[in-house]
Design goal:
Elements lengths: L3 H9 L4 E3 L6 E4 L2 E11 L2 E13 L3 H10 L4 E2 L9 E5 L5 H15 L2 H4 L3
Antiparallel strand pairs: 1-2, 2-3, 3-4, 4-6, 5-6
């Protein structure tokens, strides 16, 4: 079972990552976000920053759909993310090894080529 501290540790271990000040966690490489806490929108109320759920960059719609259909207990999406290559990950449903793979893949897709080649 992974948590927000695991996300932070994994993300910050990758080259050239910066954490953006937020109500949860928010990590970028080359000024591009690759993993952050889920800002849950609630009708008529302020959004709630969910540190038990990570938003991950996945690259394209095909990969997004494969994750959503293949592991619906682990990944989900929300209407505000339609058309975006992003999925929400329930951290409690993955171990640290799987989290590391997912965060690293997201980093690789967002990092500039010269930075990604450092990994």
């Amino acid at each position: 079972m992974a948590d927000a501290d695991d996300v932070r540790r994994v993300a910050l271990a990758l080259p050239h990552v910066e954490e953006i000040d937020s109500g949860g966690f928010d990590f970028r490489v080359g000024d591009k976000g690759f993993v952050w806490s889920y800002p849950e929108r609630r009708p008529g109320r302020r959004r709630l920053i969910r540190t038990d759920i990570a938003v991950l960059f996945v690259g394209d719609e095909a990969e997004k759909q494969a994750l959503l259909l293949g592991e619906p207990d682990v990944f989900f999406t929300a209407p505000g993310y339609d058309g975006s290559p992003l999925v929400m990950l329930r951290l409690a449903e993955v171990d640290v090894k799987r989290l590391t793979e997912l965060v690293t893949d997201a980093w690789l897709m967002r990092a500039p080529v010269e930075i990604a080649s450092e990994l």
